[in-house]
From TrEMBL:
InterPro entries: Peripla_BP_I, SBP_2_dom. This is ABC transporter substrate-binding protein. It is found in: Cell envelope. It comes from the Bacteria. Keywords: Signal. One of its GO terms (molecular function) is carbohydrate binding. Residues 1-26 form the signal peptide. The keyword Signal applies. Belongs to the bacterial solute-binding protein 2 family. GO terms for cellular component: cell envelope. Its main location: other.
Length: 341
């Protein structure tokens, strides 16, 4: 019975994926695989539908890779992966297709917090557990999702603020007016909300910190560069840039240097970034970025452990956090070589 059910699930999963134009990154769905798709497949795989936000950043690519490494057929899974290309409506469509395919689990990284009640109710009604990865949802009924695996973004933002407070103190600049420009990520995303809240909570304690603007730069390099350029033209003096991810920081550093200014430990503008991907860590080592607050994208393993617990009928927590560090020129050297993304 279990085998027949698994076969049906996978058959309908494949067909619907092809019909809906969903390409499986974990498993590329080639048209020819329709000829005899299951002849060589093991039975009894756990079917997992993953809806990813997009591919806006290096972090996101690493997050996707982490999922694809874990949810393989060798490990007992059939992965249906959908890239929503930064659109909530695409995520809702993907979730609905997972529901109609009767997947065993839905894993998804919600682009923004609001707007999920209806589709998550549909998943609940279909008896499909939903695991949030990376970002959170704001729903009236918290039982609409099983658990969330991700980062504590408010803590990350507070770490950034605390680092700045300590740094300014070391430099004897604690009385000076410090003009701060914030490059914010996607509006309404948990990572944007948390990093802002955490940083602003520390900023509030420092009367000399002057937040010039919080500009929406969507977590991309192109937007980071564009918004940085605009803010440099708008404000005469910017002492600190807080970039809510590395990709925006790359764009910001370019814009600052094009304006004839320098960044980092010896520079005109202090740069604080988040994510800590390899290229950014190298910039920390060179003193171009002052500090990088790590956000750990390696969440696939933790998501799988949650699924295994659920498979065994065990209770799970409502949230699981990944471990993260703060990188400065002093400690970054020990970590760069082992960074794979
Ligand atoms: O910082 C950014 C990505 O939500 C933690 O999204 C994630 C953020 C990450 O695009 O690079």
């Amino acid at each position: 019975m279990r085998c027949r059910r698994a076969f049906c699930k996978r058959a309908s999963a494949l067909l619907l994926s092809v019909l809906l134009g969903i390409t499986g990154c974990g498993m590329e769905l080639q048209p020819e695989s329709l000829e005899d798709p299951y002849a060589h497949k093991e039975e009894g795989l756990t079917v997992v539908g993953v809806s990813q936000v997009g591919s806006e950043s290096v972090w996101r690519t690493a997050n996707t890779a982490s999922i694809q490494r874990v949810f393989t057929q060798e490990n007992g899974y059939f992965l249906i992966f959908d890239n929503a290309r930064q659109k909530q409506e695409n995520q809702i469509k993907a979730l609905r297709s997972f529901i109609s395919q009767q997947v065993d689990y839905i894993v998804f990284s919600p682009i923004e917090e609001e707007g999920w009640d209806t589709v998550l109710q549909e998943a609940k009604d279909a008896g499909i557990p939903v695991i949030l990865m990376d970002r959170n949802v704001k729903v009236a009924d918290e039982s609409l999702y099983t658990t969330r695996v991700g980062s504590d973004f408010t803590r990350e933002g507070a770490d950034a603020g605390q680092w700045l407070a300590d740094y300014l103190q070391e430099q004897g600049r604690q009385q000076e007016t410090i003009n701060i420009a914030i490059l914010a990520g996607t509006e309404g995303a948990t990572s944007t909300i948390g990093r802002s809240e955490g940083f602003l909570s520390v900023a509030q304690e420092h009367e000399n910190w002057n937040i010039l603007e919080q500009a929406d730069a969507e977590f991309t390099t192109a937007k980071g560069r564009e918004e940085m350029e605009r803010m440099l033209n708008t404000y005469g003096d910017i002492d600190v840039v807080v970039s809510q991810n590395d990709d925006m920081a790359f764009g910001a550093v370019e814009a600052i240097s094009e304006a004839g200014l320098t960044t980092g430990t010896e520079g005109d503008v202090i740069v604080i970034s988040f994510d800590a991907v390899r290229k950014a860590l190298e910039m920390v080592e060179k003193g171009i970025i002052n500090v990088d607050i790590e956000c750990n994208p390696e969440q696939g393993g933790l998501v799988e452990r949650v699924i295994q617990k659920l498979e065994r009928g065990e209770a799970v927590e409502k949230a699981y956090y990944v471990q993260e560090k703060v990188f400065t020129p002093e400690n970054v050297g020990d970590y760069i070589d082992s960074r794979s993304y």
